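Researcher: If convenient, please comment on what follows.
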Amino acid sequence: KGESEVSGQAQLIEQSIINDAPELAEGLVKLDLTADRRALRVMVKNLHWEIINESELLLRFSLPSGGYATSLLRELLLIN
């Protein structure tokens, strides 16, 4: 619904998806949904941690609106 908020490569990708799934796109329009996006990165604030014992870690932090704690935990726990 409305104009796309993206341009360039991102707009090409979105348009390709719409072109590949016209029934889905039409269904979303019929539901009167508005496109929305989330930031790819958010800044964590007030990150504090405390080791409780060898199997427990207490984390405290703040995320801006739209940030997901589960995404932060995944990034903190990734081991490569």
Observations:
- Strands lie at 45-53, 56-62.
